[in-house]
Amino acid sequence: MTAELFVPPDFVVPRRLETAQFVLEPLGPQHNEADYAAWSSSMDHIHATPGWEESSWPRSMTPNENRADLERHASDFESRTGFTYSVLSPDGDVIGCVYIYPVPDEAVDARVLSWVRGSEAELDAPLWRAVSGWVESDWPFENVEYAARD
């Protein structure tokens, strides 16, 4: 699929996924401080997370560079070319992120990546299970790449 047709024009993009352990909401610059704290304290953990082993991110960035990155993700969400969600604890702290983006490989409709902060590592598999089910039930994709968790 081309980026501009990542999701059908009439598809209503989900704004929230809520479980007893976490809530997903669209990522934006309002999350900058908590998002920066979450990933910058967990870089080694994120790089060890399935799907992130070869990624060039996370890398050292300033809080202002992070804000620009969040603004880019929010713009992608608004333009429907990619969807990034903050993973929030029940008390509202950022504990991770979920990314849903197109891939050039036509055999795959979307790639999903997720991470949780190192201090919340036990939530990685529950997040993967919840997001996998959500993408299957609520999103218009036939073939999704999302690195499995144990």
Describe the structure.
By secondary structure, this protein is an alpha+beta fold. 31% of the residues lie in helices and 19% in strands. The protein contains 4 helices and 6 strands; from the N terminus they run E-E-H-H-H-E-E-E-H-E. It has helices at residues 32-40, 43-47, 63-79, 124-138; strands at 17-18, 23-26, 83-88, 94-101, 110-116, 144-145. It has a 6-stranded mixed β-sheet with strand order 1-2-3-4-5-6, with helices on both faces. Strand 3 and strand 4 form a beta hairpin. Helix 1 packs across helix 3. The protein is globular. 28% of the residues are buried. The mean pLDDT is 94.
In total, the number of strands is 6
Shape: globular
Mean pLDDT: 94
Number of helices: 4
Q: In terms of topology, how is this protein built?
A:
Elements: E1 17-18, E2 23-26, H1 32-40, H2 43-47, H3 63-79, E3 83-88, E4 94-101, E5 110-116, H4 124-138, E6 144-145
Parallel strand pairs: 5-6
Antiparallel strand pairs: 1-2, 2-3, 3-4, 4-5
Quick summary:
With 150 residues, the protein is an alpha+beta fold. It has helices at residues 32-40, 43-47, 63-79, 124-138, and strands at 17-18, 23-26, 83-88, 94-101, 110-116, 144-145.
Brief descriptors of the model:
150 residues, alpha+beta, 4 helices, globular
